[in-house]
Design brief:
This protein is mainly alpha-helical and 322 residues long. It has 16 helices and 2 strands. The chain has helices at 12-25, 31-42, 48-60, 67-91, 102-105, 108-127, 132-154, 163-188, 193-220, 223-226, 232-235, 241-247, 252-258, 266-275, 279-299, 304-319, and strands at residues 95-96, 99-100. Helix 1 packs across helix 4, helix 3 crosses helix 8 and helix 6 (108-127) runs antiparallel to helix 7 (132-154). Keywords: Chloroplast, Isoprene biosynthesis, Magnesium, Metal-binding, Plastid, Transferase. Belongs to the FPP/GGPP synthase family. Pfam families: polyprenyl_synt (PF00348).
Amino acid sequence: MTIVPKILPNIHKDLLILETNLKKMVSAKHPILYAAAAHLFNAGGKRIRPTIILLIALSTTKLNILPEHKRLAEITEIIHTASLVHDDVIDECETRRGVNTVHNKFSTKVAVLAGDFLFAQSSWYLANLNNLDVVKIISKVITDFAEGEVRQGLTCFDEMISIDNYIEKSFYKTASLIASSCKATAILSQTTINTQNQFYIYGKHLGLAFQIVDDILDIIGSKASLGKPAGSDLKNGNLTAPLIFALQEDAKLYDLIEREFQQQNDIYQAIEIIKNTHGIQKSYDLAQEHIQASIQAINKIDNRLAQESLSYINNYIIKRLN
């Protein structure tokens, strides 16, 4: 579940309330739609996005975290969860976080409707924050998700994909939401434009590092730790940093990609090839570069509490590989 008890007890209570509120916010009149939404949140998750929002809120307000901050944390998690539902449909994933995906448990039609419903609910709550700047920046994230999915579809099993293409796609699919929610939190705290922009840069690079680490784990992790089979991204044609770097060293991967990992043991063979190259190490180094860039952004903000509390998040992301 959450990582907060190990980081900052001050927001532990707020995250427990968030868990309860999420289920209330996605309540629907139709029992199937409600069951699908509830199934998602019952599966839990790291809640990394709400954690970051609450930490930034705590460090940028002189008194207590505002109700708007708490609602933004909830909205962000709903948007993230909605994107996962649609991702799972597109990728035909059978499990997520160790439980059946919505389309696997119910149907593809219900999953698509559940994702749409969650996006709609988040938009309604977002509008009720009554802050146009926040509405603008968070609304853009939903279009970024679609852009990311299109880009991923266009590069499916494309061995010519570059690291730059991969980073750009990763921004749309992961980093955009984290970056925008960081900035939106600073907007709600009425910080300076410069502070808001530095929080955006922090979130952007943190989000990219988070995605790269996720992609490394897809290669080196176990089904038990991932909640889904290792190599799931490769199987779906989503070529990530470890494979892109490994392609530079071992041409055998080209043959496996060309036949779309269709033969028995193709995924296992690809994983072993990647592990025997510098693909994992180079991906780790790339993640570290983005972690350092996020730290540089925070250091440009004159806020020691933000620097200290957010450094725990940075460390947590990299230590997921340990």
